[in-house]
Amino acid sequence: KAGVTQTPRYLIKTRGQQVTLSCSPISGHRSVSWYQQTPGQGLQFLFEYFSETQRNKGNFPGRFSGRQFSNSRSEMNVSTLELGDSALYLCASSLTSGGIYYEQYFGPGTRLTVT
Amino acid sequence: GEDVEQSLFLSVREGDSSVINCTYTDSSSTYLYWYKQEPGAGLQLLTYIFSNMDMKQDQRLTVLLNKKDKHLSLRIADTQTGDSAIYFCAESIGGGGADGLTFGKGTHLIIQP
User: Which of A10, A30, A58, B112 has its CA 20 to 30 A from that of B1?
Assistant: First the structure.
């Protein structure tokens, strides 16, 4: 079974631009979560989608948004990029969400550099 | 609020046991996890423990949970050079999805020959 895939793997953008990152979960997984990883703040939860609905959101400004499609693929968008948005963005998928235990599987991440 | 703390570095000799420690603050945590991250890679789930357990063993890995002290540890027996990585402790209230995982800053495990 293929793992979580994220595209692109590397991206360089300029301040003020916007960016869209994509995540394809493991086949059959319906929950997709996004995390930002930086040297200063570590790993921080951005948001989680299940069945095309955002169920929870971390403490990030409204410039960070996401969506999930009917095939469970997810995208996250960052508008008006700032230098501080440079980070590794990780996507994780799991079979379901809430209640029973399930494992989260992480993708390799997208390395975003804002110049 | 939720907070997970780990020491930043641990250096061990090849063949010895490594013990990575973690403390957490949220008493309502349901699941506690250990993830491994190698350079340039995403996170690999190593093991997890449910909050009503004290210990879990999986091959070379042993997880100990002291719920009273909110202390979690990961022991890696017979540490090998391939174990060199950053190890993250994480907690969740629910199953780990909708509520998100709260991670520690990670412990860099350095293996000496």
Answer: A30
Residue B87's beta-bridge partner residues?
Answer: B36, B107
What's the confidence (pLDDT) of residue A55?
Answer: 87
Q: What is the pLDDT of residues B67-83, one digit of tens each?
A: 889 999 999 999 999 99
- Please, which pLDDT band fits residue A26 given cuts at 50, 70 and 90? very high
Taken as a whole, chain A contains a residue count of 115
Task: Provide the total of helices (H) and of strands (E) in chain B, helices listed first.
Answer: 0, 11
How close is the nearest chain A Cα to the Cα of B35, in Å? 10
> Which whole-number Å values give the CA distances from B47 to A86, B8, B93, in the listed order?
29, 20, 17
Burial class (CB in 10 A: 0-12, 13-18, 19+), A72: buried
Q: Give the Cα separation of A111 and A56 in Å (integer).
A: 23
Q: Give the residue from chain A lying closest to B40, CA to CA.
A: A108
- B-chain residues near A58 (CB < 8 A): 100
CA distances from A34 to A42, A97, A107, B14, B59 (A): 14, 14, 10, 35, 30
- Supply the mean pLDDT for chain A: 92
Residues of B with CB under 8 A from a CB of A: 31, 35, 41-45, 48, 50, 88, 90, 94-106
β-strands B4-6, B55-58 pairing:
unpaired
User: Residues 6 or more apart from A111 whose CB is under 8 A from it?
Assistant: A9, A10, A11, A88
